[in-house]
Amino acid sequence: MFQGLRTVVYGVNDIEKARAWYSEVLGIQPYFDQPFYVGFNVGGFELGLDPDTKPGAAGPQAYWGVADADAAYQRLIALGAQESEAIHDVGGDIRLGTVIDPFGNALSIIANPHFSFQEGNA
Question: Which domain of life is it from (predicted)?
């Protein structure tokens, strides 16, 4: 039985640059840091970087929750991501969008005022 989202893994072609970029984006250091895998704990979920996985934006789409989608999107662009899908309202004040990280992966964000994460529910 599924228990909820646990990990999203992005392929990267330069793990050192990817570690530094995601550390800047997330404002935290990885909890697991090895040459074969780097893992960040982001609000109880894992964002993993894997140099053995081919980078690309064609895989499954995972949305990372943010408080302000517009501000988060602009910050990602300022940090070197490329615009892909501009922030837009999909109904019910839910705003989302996607950038392409410097390694070719789709990085999607969502501000959903109707969803709240509660420990023990996942």
Answer: Bacteria
**Residues 15 and 54 sit within 8 Å (Cβ to Cβ):** no
User: Domain total for the chain?
Assistant: 1
First to last CA, the chain: 11
How far apart are alpha carbons 95 and 27 in whole angstroms? 22
Please give the torsion angle defined by the CA atoms of residues 88, 91, 95 and 99, in that order, rounded to the nearest 10 degrees.
-50
Residue 17 phi/psi, 5° resolution? -65, -40
CATH number of the domain where residue 19 is located? 3.10.180.10
Q: Does 120 map to a domain?
A: no
The answer to whether residue 22 sits within a structural domain is yes
The reply to whether 116 falls in a domain is no
Cβ atoms of residues 86 and 102 within 8 Å:
no
For residue 117, being part of any structural domain is answered with no
List pLDDT tens digits, range 54-90.
887 677 678 899 999 999 999 999 999 999 999 999 8
